[in-house]
Amino acid sequence: MAEAYGKLTGQAGVCFVTRGPGATNASIGVHTAMQNSTPMVLFIGQIGRAMTDREAFQEVDYRMYFGPIAKWVTQIDDPDRIPELVARAFSTATSGRPGPVVVALPEDMLRELTNAPPAQQSPALSAQASITQINAISTALNAAKRPLIICGGGGWTDQGRDDLQSFAETAQIPVICGFRNQDLIETTSPAYVGDASFGKAQAMKELIANSDCILAINIRFGEVVTDGWEMFDFPHPKQKIIHTHISEAEINKVYQCDMGIVASPDSVVEGLNTTEIRGDWGTYFNDARAAYLETRAIPKTLGTLNVAKICNYLNENADPDAIYTNGAGNYAIWPGKYLNYSKSHRLLAPQSGAMGGGVPSAIAAKVAYPDRQVICFSGDGDFQMSIAELGTAMQQMVDPIILIHNNGSYGTIRMHQEMRYPDRISGTELVNPNFGDVAKAYGFGYARIETDAEFGDAFVQAKSAAFGFIIEMIADPRDIAPHKTI
User: Fold this and answer.
1) Integer distance in angstroms from the first to the last C-alpha of the chain?
2) Which residue from 3, 102, 127, 412 has the highest number of Cβ atoms inside 10 Å of its Cβ?
3) Lowest model confidence (mean pLDDT) among 300-304, 337-341, 468-472
4) Mean pLDDT of all residues belonging to the chain
5) How far apart are alpha carbons 323 and 3 in whole angstroms?
6) What is the mean pLDDT of residues 399-425?
7) Alpha-carbon distance 477 to 187, whole Å?
8) Residue 109: is its pLDDT beyond 60?
9) The pairing of beta strand 374-379 with beta strand 401-406
């Protein structure tokens, strides 16, 4: 929830947990915040200082445990240093590449008194693109024949999103968003040509392969974006790479670029909007968009439930500022591919692939914006990873709409088993609870559908419900994802 709040608002989400099991449970959120580049501060209770290194009850060395997955980990041993270290925690979480910070609080320290004055809130810090750097990018793009923008990461504002779209449309440069970053630009924009996710369309692969100049704005050249680092040559891609990132640690981290610029994404696109970029690339821009739109065609499915049609229904009937969330699983490919996103239609989803992330993200979104519609896509196995959080929703009186894609299996793992070990299917079939009874137990409304034609009536019920609502969608187990349909 804290991670989702941080991603949605740009302010550091705050979470307090107890030591030991509380901290280890929280590690999923910390890992997600790191991979999502989300500002977050996690405060953890800790054993008394005199008990250290005796394997006391619930003792964990948090610097060792969280060090590889957090931006910074500290422990406050002196109460007089609370203002200093807490201020540093929030500054570290929000400055540069946003990320999670972990602060351990020994229980005996918390009982001591201090007269140290509290720290004042400090603005987040980031490098800004210079005029010289913007001009260098402009020169390179104007010299290109098939320029391409790939964007992603954290630290964007709504103004940055607007400037990105304005620049791309004016310069007529296609835009690919990074994995689960589709809300950086309106997906209805003529510049948008898809997200660099799992199961990339052949048209996108060709677009990347044939580009002669890629402006990579704030992305990490990670496994998903690069198809396991197979899409670019090592160490120097054949394409000219201009890599801008809010953190210097990401420049030349994987691939050696032709031009590296440490700057916030907002400052890059703001600067580019002052330039005149419009090369002679003919129908390249329109052809890229047309190829993307072909991938949005509604596929046939083996069962009676077509989630692509449900997504198109939501594109037309959901609130204009609806927030979408999802956890992890093949079911998430449907909303990732067929829903429209923008700075209003935000997407909260774990780039870490954390199952169960959709439900708590939806609750956090409703807490932050109680008057906005929040729609959560979840799988049947995914939903049960965080089913108890419906108790949080009930207690806090927040009312998300949750769509459970019930195919009776852990679909992603089942797909890999069928592809690699078809005679050794193991542990991926699910015997699910009665989701209607689950909804009733937590005060949620409920509807069960078996065809996409039934979704409209169920969604109308959900919108008019007195509290939250669950729509259980019965899917054919063979309809794993759009790329596995007939």
Assistant:
1) 37
2) 3
3) 300-304
4) 95
5) 15
6) 92
7) 29
8) yes
9) parallel
| Collapsed DSSP state (helix, strand, coil) of residue 476 | coil
* Predicted pLDDT of residue 478: 67
Q: Which two tokens stand for residue 347?
A: 């997407």
The residue with greater pLDDT, 368 or 478, is 368
Q: Which domains, and CATH codes, for the chain?
A: 2-110 (3.40.50.970), 131-295 (3.40.50.1220), 307-484 (3.40.50.970)
Residue 50 backbone zone (phi > 0: left; psi -120 to 50: alpha; other: beta): alpha
What residues form DSSP beta bridges with 149?
175, 215
What is the C-alpha separation between 45 and 24, in angstroms, rounded? 12
Residue 395 CB neighbour total at 10 angstroms = 9
Greatest extent of the chain over all pairs of C-alpha atoms, in Å = 71
State phi, psi for 32 to the nearest 5 degrees.
-65, -45
Closest to 468 measured CA to CA, from 349, 381, 367: 367
Query: pLDDT tens digits, residue range 298-316?
Result: 988 888 899 999 999 999 9
Contact indicator for 232, 242 with CB cutoff of 8 Å: no
Q: Which of 308, 314, 307 is nearest to 345 (CA)?
A: 314
Q: What is the pLDDT of residue 479?
A: 67
Cα dihedral value 76, 80, 83, 87, nearest 10:
-40
Taking the CB of residue 166, how many other CB atoms lie within 10 A of it?
17
Task: State residue 168's pLDDT score.
Answer: 97
| Dihedral angle computed from the Cα positions of residues 351, 483, 305 and 387, in that order, rounded to the nearest 10 degrees | -20
